[in-house]
Design brief:
The complex is a heterodimer of chains A (498) and B (161). Chain A is 77% helix and 1% strand. With 498 residues, chain A is mainly alpha-helical. The chains are: A mainly alpha (498), B mainly alpha (161).
Chain lengths: 498, 161
């Protein structure tokens, strides 16, 4: 790590590549159905002819841009552009419905940049010690982490906990459809070849979140989003003030994002959900999460962008990809002839540090680029006539879902889930617990079965599930997040009664 | 007369609430059925590792749905229910999207989506139609579809039909 590497990252070529990567990533990430993994995967061939550090900067910039880009559709259309932006819909869309879509987009941008910088600094200064955290996480910790994420259902249930829990259970059942990962049993397909590969998470998410919005939008003549201020002006200063006034939430969520990013297989969606849970758990009495609370956007967006730097830690130090896009980047590195592993920082130090500085620069560039693209995205969505907006978004849901697995069946499933999601939303059930179950179900199942097998083999199941310090810490957090809001509400109502 | 009007509107709100509560119970019952189907299917799995998770989730689904029904009967919470009106728009929109799935293998994605867009445009139009509006809106949509089709097919190399 020296100043020379920093200057190497500042060459015109590297700057241009970082800028191109952020723009391309943001645009691709904003399209529902195109995930950060796809953004990196489709653009990876461009990097083959570049020097390793430039290639890494390009891929890192695309990745970080795509994670941020997912927030646009989440805020303006209630459709997470990428799975990382699921929790952004919880408060982003309600805020946009109040006529503050531009504010929400700007808050998402500031939070994403801050989270991205925290993740990149962790990669710069703490990579080797933090990589050991990834190794300390066994199957049982993954299981408890997913249970911690599922505890968010309690707060997403909007007044009817039983309906929320039923939705979560339904999502977990949906996640089991297809071939079982551990034993290869074929589950819940009822002989259908189409269902053998199971529900495609992104397609299901588009269906459950976006189709209900489209169905409601086409049925009334009201405007899709309210406009309260001047569409041409972005409330940048207010957004910066709101974001940085929430310092503790911002820092905590960024750290959560970095740590979750380090865990192989967890990714931005889990980071966003965990950070959102924590933000909600520690909310002040006046904060109304789920109704357009800026802290919800801050938590999710800072956490999901922090996973970018966090995910690179095990990728570079251990050769284990932290998140799915990291797996693609790892492949690209191998093509480049760069061997990742503990010696990488010594043997190819200049490449690694130039890349890390490049990632920092790309993250900083995301601020102006993100605000400019965000402004146009908001302007387009609020000014475009509803008659054009509805079929256009409908078209994008079709092409986005189709392109994930090149399957028409996925589009049909997406539409059916959308209609189902719309129907149940009218009767008190929410789509979010279903999506939560669908995403966290496989992590919980795999962790549970593996931990059960190991625990049975060593003849110590209770010790396996409850005896490890990391597990105990996660269990404690889960219990706190479930019990504390209930206890505080009870205390408040008791005070009110007296 | 005013009292009569108030009574009628209160009665209508009560009827809506009742039908919404009934709707919630129907949805929860449907979830219970899904739970039992899962349990039935899980009984045929050869490996215990495959059974544990779906069975646990199915039992949870049945239990929570039953509790949700009990709560709706004893302490009904207000749910919006489906507002009447504009049903044709909703059906036409979803139907057009399903139609594009059916047409896609035969006509290709581009034509199927242009047709879907045109039908969706009719379903979502709440203003007065004018010849100019129809032309501008359709051309606008057409250009968006062609742009995205080109992006996906030729830049991102997605093998679109």
């Amino acid at each position: 790590m020296d100043f020379g590497n920093f200057l190497a990252a500042l060459t015109p070529l590297n700057l241009a590549v970082a800028m191109f990567g952020v723009v391309a990533g943001t645009l691709i990430g904003s399209i529902p159905g195109l995930t950060a993994t796809m953004a990196v995967a489709v653009l990876v061939p461009i990097s083959f002819s570049m020097a390793p550090e430039t290639a890494l900067i390009l891929l890192g910039a695309i990745y970080t841009g795509a994670i941020y880009g997912g927030a646009y559709a989440a805020i303006l259309l209630n459709t997470p552009g990428t799975p990382s932006a699921i929790a952004t819909t919880f408060d982003g869309y309600p805020l946009a419905k109040q006529g503050k879509g531009d504010l929400a987009v700007a808050i998402a941008c500031f939070s994403s940049v801050f989270g991205g910088l925290v993740g990149a600094f962790a990669l710069l200064f703490l990579a080797p010690p933090l990589a050991s955290v990834a190794l300390a996480f066994g199957p049982v910790e993954y299981f408890w982490l997913s249970i911690f994420g599922l505890s968010l259902i309690a707060s997403l249930s909007q007044g009817n906990l039983m309906m929320g829990l039923a939705g979560g259970a339904l999502g977990m059942i949906m996640s089991t459809v297809g071939v079982a990962e551990i034993s290869a049993d074929i589950r819940l397909t009822f002989g259908s070849q189409t269902m053998i590969s199971g529900f495609e998470v992104v397609g299901a998410m588009i269906g459950l979140y976006c189709i209900p919005v489209l169905i409601d939008m086409c049925s009334t003549g009201e405007k899709h989003l309210k406009i309260t201020g001047d569409v041409a002006k972005m409330p940048i200063l207010s957004a910066a003030r709101i974001t940085f006034n929430s310092k503790f939430n911002l820092i905590r969520s960024s750290i959560i994002g970095t740590l979750v990013g380090i865990l192989p297989g967890a990714g931005g969606s889990v980071a966003g959900l965990v950070a959102y849970t924590e933000a909600k758990r520690t909310a002040k009495p006046h904060q109304k999460f789920g109704e357009g609370e800026p802290d919800g956007i801050i938590a999710t967006e800072s956490a999901n962008n922090a996973t970018v730097g966090g995910g690179f830690i095990p990728t570079l130090v251990l050769g284990i990809p932290g998140t799915p896009p990291d797996a693609v980047i790892l492949g690209a590195l191998m093509v480049q002839g760069v061997r990742t592993g503990p010696e990488l920082f010594q043997s190819n130090g200049s490449i690694v540090y130039t890349f890390i500085y490049g990632l920092l620069i790309a993250t900083v560039l995301m601020l102006p680029i993100g605000l400019i693209i965000g402004r146009y995205a908001y302007k387009s969505i609020v000014t475009i006539p509803k008659a054009v907006l509805v079929p256009t978004v409908g078209f994008m849901t079709i092409i986005g879902t189709y392109s994930i697995r090149n399957s028409v069946s996925d589009v049909v499933i997406m539409l059916c889930l959308g209609v189902f999601g719309w129907l149940i939303s009218k009767y008190g059930f929410s789509a979010s617990p279903i999506v939560l179950g669908l995403i966290l179900g496989p992590i919980a199942e795999q962790g549970f079965v593996q931990a059960w097998t190991i625990g049975s083999a060593v003849n110590n199941l209770p010790g396996m599930f409850f005896g490890r310090p990391l597990s105990q810490a996660i269990i404690a957090f889960t219990l706190i997040s479930l019990i504390l809001p209930w206890y505080l509400n009870r205390k408040k109502s008791n005070k009110g009664g007296h | 007369m005013a009292d009569l009007n108030t009574d009628t509107s209160t009665q209508s709100v009560n009827n809506t609430n009742k039908s919404s509560t009934r709707g919630s119970i129907v949805v929860a019952s449907l979830l219970i059925i899904i739970g039992f189907i899962t349990l039935y299917d899980a009984a045929s799995y050869t490996d215990i590792d495959s059974k544990v998770f779906p069975q646990t989730s199915a039992i949870a689904l049945i239990l929570f749905s039953a509790l949700a029904i009990a709560k709706q009967i004893m302490q009904p919470s207000i749910v919006s229910g489906i507002e009447l009106g504009a049903w044709w728009r909703r059906i036409v929109l979803v139907g057009s999207m399903l139609l594009s799935c059916a047409l896609m293998p035969y006509t290709g994605l581009l034509f199927a989506c242009i047709l879907t867009f045109a039908i969706g445009l009719i379903a979502s139009m709440h203003d007065q139609w004018t010849q100019r509006k129809a032309m501008v809106y359709f051309l606008c949509g057409l250009s968006i579809i062609v742009c995205f089709y080109t992006l996906f097919k030729f830049v991102l190399h997605v093998p679109l039909p």
